[in-house]
Write a structure and sequence with these properties.
Layout: H1 8-32, H2 39-44, E1 47-50, E2 58-63, E3 66-71, H3 72-75, H4 81-86, E4 91-94, E5 100-102, H5 109-118, H6 127-139, H7 143-156, E6 168-169, H8 172-181, E7 186-191, E8 199-200, H9 204-222, E9 227-231, E10 239-245, E11 248-254, E12 256-260, E13 265-269, H10 273-283, H11 294-301, H12 314-327
Parallel strand pairs: 2-5, 6-9, 7-9, 8-13
Antiparallel strand pairs: 1-4, 2-3, 4-5, 7-10, 10-11, 12-13
Domain BTB: 57-157
InterPro entries: BACURD1-3, BTB/POZ_dom, SKP1/BTB/POZ_sf, T1-type_BTB
Protein name: BTB domain-containing protein
Length: 328
């Protein structure tokens, strides 16, 4: 402490000045010692902040390098992640130029904004782009757009191979129960190769297989509209198609006949494909009708010039054969 020649009182004043000077020096030293900004922060210039403003305020978005300019009102129009980002509920990352950074691919962000504006967008024709848009909609928690995209994906999925169940009946009672209990038209194929007591003609086996293959094709194609039934232990017939509508038989196509050789009889199996298709298309007329239609049943059961195919039993064929031999 310095004492002035004027006395102790003056010395006290000088001492006070020195104390103030020392305090100022210490404060100045503490200010200089403050740590400088992080080099990384200076380098990138990115920082987080909360965005909240009026709906008419425009913001700049950088989505994976794709630049967009829109209003806060558009971004907060629906309840999704973008509303949370631009309504002050969460921080967003911005660069030194004020662009708000979103770490997503910006390919479909324009479509996202258009959906927010109009609540409708044209669905991409390309399946891959549709899947990409669906992924972006899920990321931004846009449930309405997710539902639209998922519906479009389901519609464009390749149709799977049709699967159908064909009842294999074991009794006449079971057959009647199935026919009477369904509201669908019915197509039944009775096939039993072992019912024959004669030898088959050379083409019979192939034609029998063709009838079975046609039944399988028709059942796969029309299984949702027609009930297909297969009978393998039924009557004495070998190959017989029957067609039902409203529980009543409309027509039948018998595919077997007896042919006579010089010394013996043969069983011939035919494949009347056109006739089978015709009767199948006729029964489709019954699929959307709630009750019997007398005029329709008459039209599909009797076709004027088209003569019905009549199947005869083996005994009748034997009698007919004997009668023919007597005539010869």
């Amino acid at each position: 402490m310095t004492i002035c020649r004027c006395g102790s009182r003056c010395g006290a004043v000088v001492a006070g000045v020195e104390e103030v000077s020392r305090n100022v020096t210490l404060e100045s030293t503490r200010t200089v010692v403050v740590a400088p900004p992080s080099p990384t922060s200076e380098m990138s210039g990115d920082h987080k902040k909360v965005i909240k403003g009026s709906p008419s305020q425009y913001v700049k978005l950088n989505v994976g390098g794709s630049l967009h300019y829109t209003t806060i009102g558009t971004l907060t129009k629906h309840d999704n992640m973008l509303r949370a980002m631009f309504s002050g509920r969460m921080e967003v990352l911005t660069d030194s130029e004020g662009w708000i950074l979103i770490d997503r691919c910006g390919k479909h962000f324009g479509t996202i904004l258009n959906y927010l504006r109009d609540e409708w967008i044209p669905i991409p024709e390309n399946q891959r782009e549709l899947q990409e848009l669906l992924a972006e909609a899920r990321y931004y928690c846009m449930s309405d757009l997710v539902e639209v995209c998922e519906g479009a994906v389901r519609q464009r999925e390749p149709e799977k191979d049709p699967v159908c169940r064909v009842p294999l009946i074991t009794s006449q009672r079971e057959e009647q129960m199935l026919i009477q209990s369904t509201s669908k038209p019915v197509v039944k194929l009775l096939v039993n190769r072992h019912n024959n007591k004669y030898s088959y003609t050379s083409t019979s086996d192939d034609n029998l297989l063709k009838n079975i293959e046609l039944f399988d094709r028709l059942s796969l194609r029309f299984s949702r509209r027609v009930l297909f039934i297969k009978d393998v232990i039924g009557s004495n017939e070998i190959c017989l198609w029957a067609f039902y509508g409203h529980g009543k038989k409309l027509a039948e196509v018998c595919c077997t006949s007896i042919v006579y050789a010089t010394d013996r009889k043969h069983t011939k199996v035919e494949f009347p494909e056109a006739r089978i298709y015709e009767e199948t298309l006729n029964v489709l007329l019954y699929e959307n009708r709630t009750g019997p239609d007398a005029e329709l049943m008459q039209a599909t059961s009797t076709r004027g010039a088209v003569a019905p195919v009549v199947c005869t039993s083996d005994d009748e064929e034997e009698r007919r054969g004997g009668y023919l031999r007597k005539l010869v």
